[in-house]
């Protein structure tokens, strides 16, 4: 996929680790959807702390069994593919923040299969 280099779009989705879609963690569902739609890839980041949609501090504490932490999913691909993904995403995200920005991919490499 060296052809990914050039002007592309970065889609960043801010959700909670507690968010679910059809019974599974939302971030896992999003990764499966990225694969099904043939996007270049995605990365999921779990934050240590954040302030969510209701101005509520979400942070890690050792005393809680369940940790409601911020999750960020980043996806980079061509504009057309991201725009198509956004149409599906609108049906899935109940609460969270979705941002889109222009980026320039300098290099996208992977090892060749032997």
TrEMBL record:
<protein>
    <recommendedName>
        <fullName>DUF190 domain-containing protein</fullName>
    </recommendedName>
</protein>
<dbReference type="InterPro" id="IPR011322">
    <property type="entry name" value="N-reg_PII-like_a/b"/>
</dbReference>
<dbReference type="Pfam" id="PF02641">
    <property type="entry name" value="DUF190"/>
</dbReference>
<dbReference type="InterPro" id="IPR003793">
    <property type="entry name" value="UPF0166"/>
</dbReference>
<dbReference type="InterPro" id="IPR015867">
    <property type="entry name" value="N-reg_PII/ATP_PRibTrfase_C"/>
</dbReference>
<comment type="similarity">
    <text>Belongs to the UPF0166 family.</text>
</comment>
